[in-house]
Specification:
By secondary structure, the protein is α/β, with parallel strands linked by helices. The chain has 3 domains: 81 residues, Gyrase A, domain 2 (2-Layer Sandwich); 225 residues, 3-Layer(aba) Sandwich (Rossmann fold); 177 residues, Isoleucyl-tRNA Synthetase, Domain 1, CATH 1.10.730.10. 53% of the residues lie in helices and 12% in strands. Helix 5 packs across helix 19, helix 8 crosses helix 9 and helix 15 packs across helix 16. The longest helix has 25 residues. It is flat, with a radius of gyration of 28 Å. The mean pLDDT is 94. The structure holds arginine. The site of arginine (ARG) has 9 residues, from strand 11.
Length: 569
Amino acid sequence: MRNFKRKIADLLSAILQIDENEIYNNINLTKEESMGDYSFPCFSLAKTLKKSPIVISQELKEKIRTPDYIEKIESVSGYLNFYLDKEEVTRTVFSEFEEKKDDYGRSNIGNNKTILVEYSSPNIAKPFHIGHLRTTVIGHALYNIYKFLGYNTIGINHLGDYGTQFGKLIEAYKLWGNEYNIDDNPIDELTKMYIRINNLCEEDEKVLDRCRENFKLLEEKEEYCTRLWEKFRDLSLKEFQRTYDLLGIKFDSIKGEAFYTDKIDEVVDILKKNNKLVQSEGAMVVDLKEDGIDTPCIVKKSDGSSIYATRDLAAIIYRSRVYDYDKSIYVTGYEQDFHFNQVFKVAKYLGLDDKYINGLEHVSYGMYSLKEGKMSTRKGNFIKLEDILNESISKAKQIIKEKNPDLSEIDEISKKVGVGAVVFSDLYNSRIKDEVFDLDEMLSFQGETCPYIQYMYVRINSILSKSSENVLLKDINYSKLSDEQSYSIVKLLYNFTDIIEQSAIKNEPYILSRYLIDLAKSYSAFYNKNKVLSDNPDERHSRLYLINMVGTVLRKGLEILGIQMPSKM
Ligand code: ARG
């Protein structure tokens, strides 16, 4: 039934004697009503057929016997435009929804494929600040998108729980541990200690040496240092968990960089065996000139310790064995583009199956800046993500209270609206764009925001609850849905799976976010023109069913983005 695009491709393929997949990939979903629903450009055929695209499209039009799911075909300046039969599309959407309900749009293209989505990965003992918002939110959305497409999806939090900064923190704790209450307020206190010890290190070289010594002891798994490190880690995780709870995020695996430290030797051995390791100024490095990168990748420093990149290499080996992945994506800011470029190049020399190397992908995103300027942990000017979310929740509460003073469950609703606003705005533009963080804009009920979508949903719900009718598919009169506003909703609903697939192909959740805004706007236009609870039963039933579908897709779509839908607001 479904997939008219596929059917059109088959039709053209039979006439042109060209592979139907090639044709399929060339058929475009049109944006403008005046170009029909699908458009096939004939330009690439001109060379092989030795005819102009205009002539080709005209000839094609004459040769095709228009099937009944197509209303008309037009040849316009080298394009062949297909207008689907509206009623046929509407029927398809309705019957598919009737069959799948809450699973409408779900697909199985990912079946039997495993994808790892590594995201969030904050650094222990450092604030979980709004810089981490993007990886957390984009990664979580991608995780849900792949799941919805049937992939076996594994969400991984690759904690930054290793590095020389722990040598410093241990020193700070030895010096002033009793002055700070890290049990009750771990991150704030550890951050203060970190800033203080850094200042001291700048003044006194000897302190810095002691910090280095601590780190060495930690690497050798000395008991006192290890115990302290564990304490910092556990306390930090507990605090991070509060933010994850607010965002409704769970991971399938939380493993820190430290987990990979005893797996470094294998990386070194393999690279050695493959003649890829060279000595450079006492360190062991992989030369990447042949791979077009001038800077060699350090694998072991001169003091024998590993670096960030080495632990990523060890993680690739580990994950290939444990998960046998088909794809493994890393969601981080673009300031790590070079790092991943290097790591993925070195990974080619680890002797792994090609599939594991080809499956690696860095999904990078632009920077978030505050209206007030740049953030820095060292200087202490950062904003914790948890605080931002809580502020957004309380602002949402004020706004909702003003609009609807008697609302019960206000706390739960404000949480959904407040958190949703922040998450959605993060997902609303192409991820590579730099963004300025503006809470008031995010919380607006008008414009392209999450509260706007949530509000439309709530209005749909209130109409549905006014009518106690249980509309069945057989009650639908499709001719009642042929007006422009109704049909534009049907078309959007028809495209839902396509939209999710495109979001996955490009790793761009914004494709889904923008779609949901389009759907909410179309609903609003529809509602302004059509009375849902019409006295004419045919109209009423058809419209009730239609808006129920809109509500379901809006709710499901936001859920995939990691946002909860309130039932009232
Ligand atoms: N902890 C790092 C940071 O906060 C991000 C880790 C990214 N993942 C990775 N496999 N290197 O910058």
